[in-house]
Amino acid sequence: MKVAVFGQFFYPDSGKYIKQLLATLAQNSIEVHIEQDYYQMLLEKSILGHKNQYSTFENLDSSFELFFSLGGDGTILSAVDFVKHYPIPIVGINTGRLGFLASIHKEEIQPAITEILNKEYTLSNRSLLEVKTTASNFPESCYALNEMAISRRNTTSMITVETWLNNEFLNAYWSDGIILSTPTGSTGYSLSCGGPIITPESNSFALTPIAPHNLNARPLIFPDYHPTKFNVKTREQDFMISVDSKVFTVDSSTEITVNKANFELRLVSLKSDSFLQTLRKKLLWGEDSRNFKH
């Protein structure tokens, strides 16, 4: 079996867990390739053994069977650029904090990886957004696993976000901005702004205004096959677009179109885990002091 290992940051206490992962893979005779920038980081932190013990990669191909992401949910978001052309399952190992997507806790690495290598896991297919704009400084296509957000820049004044849904005018949101979220992103920025939680298997997206001036402007759930289009009216010459962790400043004349991407991300979950269990654990549902004796 051939696997990829990727991370973005090195947390002070994560070294021993990375060593556990690599040792478990070695014990199972797994061919390990480490993303080249992460490889250099691990070398500098003296995490790796012999310098030539591991191969590195810049890009992936269909020969990889698993992609190990070490960090938090942000690291998995960055992994999209590596796996978007290949249906390689992503194993998220949470060495960060909350971790909705990176569901394997660092304390559980050895038994969890053993289960995964024995194919004792389930796959959750996650839809993505494909974002295109008329701005010259924006990529031809940009993909979001969580959300695309439009927001004001360098002003305290609200902006007006004219919104079309399925080629029909929907509303002009007078607000600090708007969030277009996937089911995966519904537990992130959108949730913080009052948006709904959407289960991953739902074929829906959500529009959530950010601090709208019109109190009757509510979040909207719609079928994910409907395209959306946005124009922004602002007193300033530009505004901001964020696509997951990528942020762009664009001219106020920029038009934005968003469609469902033509590929999905495959996330590995242990059979003992579920989305509903994650909600209870991460959002502390049911953790009410009235349920406990003092």
UniProtKB/TrEMBL annotation:
Annotated active site: 73 (proton acceptor)
Cofactors that this protein relies on: a divalent metal cation
Family per record: Belongs to the NAD kinase family.
Residues the entry annotates as binding NAD(+): 73-74, 146-147, 176, 187-192, 211
GO molecular function: ATP binding; metal ion binding; NAD binding; NAD+ kinase activity
InterPro entries noted in UniProt: ATP-NAD_kinase_N, ATP-NAD_kinase_PpnK-typ_C, NAD/diacylglycerol_kinase_sf, NADK
One of the record's GO cellular component terms: cytoplasm
Pfam families with a match to the protein in the record: NAD_kinase (PF01513), NAD_kinase_C (PF20143)
Highest taxon above the source species: Bacteria
EC number: 2.7.1.23
Protein name per its UniProtKB record: NAD kinase
Subcellular location: Cytoplasm
GO BP term (any one): NADP+ biosynthetic process
